[in-house]
Structures
1.
Amino acid sequence: MKKILFIVGSLRQGSFDQQFAQNAEKALEGKAEVSYLDWAQVPVFSQDLEADIPASVQAAREAVLAADAIWVFSPVYNFAIPGSVKNLLDWLSRALDLSDTTGASALNDKVTTVSILANGGHEPVAEAYRTLFPFIRTKFVDEITTTRVNDSAWADGKFIATDEVIANLEKQADAVLAAID
């Protein structure tokens, strides 16, 4: 069975992005094995840390290498990719062999996609991911699901995906599975 690693872009417990990802997990039920990356301890990138790679970064790399595809669930922060998500992708895109800085990374040729949940700024962030993922040498599946947070979620903490969003996630899931060699 194909293995898809979810990266939830909000580290808050029970975040709307976490709930969004759970809807996508349902779309993959019986089709792929889903796991979630624990990346809360990944430090801010610094070349000074690369020689003795932090354990949290090594664990993230290993999880990425074990997966057939990576699916990011991204919030929008100030009409941009959240800095924490970009930092994680920076670490994951670095060469595994420091003697060849142009060599393969954990993300090299990995199937990737993104879904975006925000109440504005979807298009600039989608464009940023469309530029970033191919640049860091992934096989980007440009079947992006975007949606906004339902108004009631701000009061009760529960993200509710519409039927249209669920259909889009199912379509995105099928596109990701088709892209896996």
2.
Amino acid sequence: MKKECVAMLLAGGEGKRLGALTKNLAKPAVHFGGKYRIIDFTLSNCTNSGIHTVGVLTQYSPLVLNKHIGIGKPWDLDRQKDGVTILSPYTAKKGGSWYSGTADAIYQNIHFIDQYSPEYVLVISGDHIYQMNYNSLLNHHKENGADATISVMEVPLEDASRFGILNTTEDLRIYEFEEKPKEPKNNLASMGIYIFSWTTLRKYLLEDAELMHSSHDFGKDVIPAMLEDNLRLYAYRFEGYWKDVGTVQSYWEANMDLLEEDLTLSLNNKSWRTYSHDSNFPPQFTSEAAVVTQSLINSGCWICGTVKNSILFDNVTVHEGSSINQSILHPGVIINENVVLNRVIVMENTIIPANTHIYSNENGEPLVIDKNNIATILAEQGQLKGASK
């Protein structure tokens, strides 16, 4: 069945810099924003943009991610003839291997794309927080008669060396692409969101696969090869909120951003919904003694303490006398009596003992707490003896 555009969603990221958050979990499956997982934003963008043929390329610790995606029902991607398809590395008669780069991941799934004979392929990542109409990107690509179009946004110049930096003419035609340059010439950064004309991309993927010295990456190999051949590559300026939650600090910041009233990323936007599974817990309960300000509180929560500038996922309990500030509590967390948490992230089903005070690291980076490290953290902070269950 022919499709105009097929989306290939790269969701195999290990996310090493997220530490305990991704110890046994693919980065796109990490909890975010009170009721979502990170990948929900990209999948919702596909649905809202009318792109219903989506291949999700998984690799690292995919169990929870695969279960979360399932048949794609929350995003209206549970379709018989297209919808969402999980694409994991596999072995065929000619052999097989793990995905060795972003371009290699697409190359290994050429057969999936070919069955739809698309004119265009959208390559996106499952570990960014943003809301984008991919049709605007596709129309920009068509209007310029481009071979490839890269979505870009301006970043602080001091951060530019962390990104792929594009140099363009006034009409946004790209003439140079530098992957994480030490001395960037400008701050126009690639968001890792690409539209390719499929026949062109297919040719370059096949050629790149034969190069032994290639890292098989879009930013390092395929895009520079296209520029060297003087193909028509254009930049598309994105105006809106976008965050790569690649570190514990950026993950915490992105969650806290949701508490800003003037944030362009709105979870209440009825015309651009962010979809996910519904936990079906009962409504949250807030006791007479509770104090809740500037926070997101999900269903099933039982609040008897103080919660300020924090995000609580479903089924979280905060007992009386406890104070939660600038923190993120994942599903099923239990905060016992007289606990103080400040700038911490508590992972799923962790129990915080009564009478403990836990703060962020000395450098201000949020502290990640899980069932396996809670005792160590309390011991390091000299509180283990005074803690009780």
3.
Amino acid sequence: MKAIILAAGYGTRFNRDLQNDTSGVFKHLYGIPKPLLPVGNQALISHWMAAIDKINCIDAVFVITNDLYYVKFEDWAKEFRLVKVLNDGTRSNEERLGAIACLQLVITQFNINDNVLVLGGDTLFYEDFSLSGVLAQFAELQKINCDSNLVLSYRCKDEAETTKFGILEIDEKFQVTAFKEKPSSTETTSRRACPCFYIYSKSTIPLIAKFLQEKQNSPLEEKDAPGNFLCWVHSRKPVFVHHVCGRFDVGNLPSYIDCTRYFQKC
């Protein structure tokens, strides 16, 4: 299995919050890509490497970033044997390729023909999360049907949160039947949010290129949010759900503060 960490964002909201913060406490973080922000005693993305290092089935980790932050990630990666960093060639948020196009760029560049773990470089999970447990469930699903894919979900704290996240609908077998991007609470009875953490089977990976081909003339937003591919693929390949208690999505300064406080206690 290969792991791909999506880290090509520009942290627009986060840097705007830092500029507007009058306390001055966080000014030293300006210009640091979100995956490299300090969380506890290490960079956010290093928490993932600590978990991956304990997993024998993951034999390569690809981090895709942009030209603005490429050198920073290259410096970070020097201490990790499995990591290769790829530059998407963009220099600004306006030039960004979109998460799904970045994913395909890694697959093409490294000729990946394997099961793939895809995760957002600005995301961490609560202490109940077990990477080995998730991979064990994926292995069991693969024994039944090698086309099977696995994603995470957690319950929204309240109805208002459905408008902030991608929401999964599932059946009695925990198979995804629908994916709704930031729906109102009246559009679905489901409260299962879906973070950027997907395990796609080897047979699903070629469909990413097909998705992008179909969307080549669509707005960037349709190729950016990684959940849009999940929305498209669940009717073509079986996708199942693994439940977790919650996650931290470091999109702005308040969410970063919450994340650092949590991991300082752990």
4.
Amino acid sequence: MAAGSSNYWEDLRKQARQLENELDLKLVSFSKLCTSYSHSNSREGRRDRYSSDTTPLLNGSNQDHMFETMAVEIEQLLTKLTGVNDKMAEYSSTAGVTSINAALMHTLQRHRDILQDYTHEFHKTKANFQAIREREDLLGSVRKDIESYKTGSGVNNRRTELFLKEHEHLRSSDRLIEETISIAMATKENMTSQRGMLKSIQSRVNTLASILNSLVIAINMQIITAD
């Protein structure tokens, strides 16, 4: 029974590590996709400032499809890893020996921290990608309105200049918003990291307290028996 239980635990750990490795690779590719989308938009945006071409900033249909596909794959991996962690938690709660249970809980907490980090990274990258896409959709709509006005009958040069200036103001505001979002995300990530460290410390303290409590009970039992 003991050997079988040990094999079950090791099998769960193997599954967790395999899923974590897959998630790590997927998240790196996911982040690169978002970065590529952003840089491509920036290059197209600079080109379009001096061009009357009404083609959208970026033909992002391929990127959008890749984004949706990868997002689904990562969500599935996160769900699987969550299930494995739940099984590990269920197994560790049934361990009868306190010292063994403490070791299992330590290992489980480490896998939970990794899951939490990957989940946070996934949602952050996904939110950034969607924000870039929505921003470009808005700017593309504004650009089309400007071009439509410029090519219409009875064009008023003065009003066209005002539209163009307003467009530049929007782009400047967009850059400021992006910088603000980056600062806020960095601050949030730092706070999340600190919270994770505190939780890890608390878990270790609780484990140590459990072990010490077991030792105290054992000593008291020996004293009672001796009396």
